[in-house]
Amino acid sequence: MMLHKDVESVLLSQEKLEKIVKSLAKQIEKDYNDKEFMMVGLLKGSVAFMADLMKRVNLDFSIDFMVASSYGSGTESSGRVKIVSDLTLPVQGKDVLVVEDIIDSGNTLNFVMNYLMTKGANSVKVCTLCDKPSRRKVPLVPDYCGAEIPDEFIVGYGLDYAEKYRNLPYIGILKRSVYE
Ligand code: PRP
Ligand code: MN
Ligand code: MG
């Protein structure tokens, strides 16, 4: 496979991503079997992961999306999270599973989880593809996690740098020269 010229190396290959998604889907099926639940993807980063994950979860559930952004175009979280686009479905009384591509500082999810609880969700859990626990600024432990990753800037499979690279089918480490 041809590597993008801005990518240093592959961290999670397409094959590895598929295995991770299958394994997470199995755990979710087991835990949400008897629940009336809703999968909420945080756009835009979760787009590829959510699309693959939901197809592997063999249960009846609804899906919805939110846009909550804190990064802008840089590589550091600003800490100020805002809801750019809200849910379309009511969450009152629902068990909500938030789907994220990556947890870094934890600011985005911390804000979104509180918001969903305020809206009357029965429970709010988190399924993240990647976790960078070394960068955490607010205590937050994902309920489902695909991979713990080192403190490198990663792109692909939904993850961007300055809105680029989301379409790469793998997750790769971005060359430092691109952002330094
Ligand atoms: C990125 C990423 C997570 C969040 C993680 O989203 O997709 O949602 O940052 O960082 P945090 O834990 O420090 O909050 P971003 O705001 O870049 O928007 P995007 O999903 O559209 O890329
Ligand atoms: Mn995001
Ligand atoms: Mg981003």
Automatic annotation (TrEMBL):
GO biological process, one term: GMP salvage
Entry's Gene Ontology cellular component terms: cytosol
Domain of life: Bacteria
Cofactor(s) the protein requires to work: Mg(2+)
Function according to Swiss-Prot or TrEMBL: Purine salvage pathway enzyme that catalyzes the transfer of the ribosyl-5-phosphate group from 5-phospho-alpha-D-ribose 1-diphosphate (PRPP) to the N9 position of the 6-oxopurines hypoxanthine and guanine to form the corresponding ribonucleotides IMP (inosine 5'-monophosphate) and GMP (guanosine 5'-monophosphate), with the release of PPi.
Record family assignment: Belongs to the purine/pyrimidine phosphoribosyltransferase family.
Full protein name: Hypoxanthine phosphoribosyltransferase
Organism: Ruminococcus difficilis
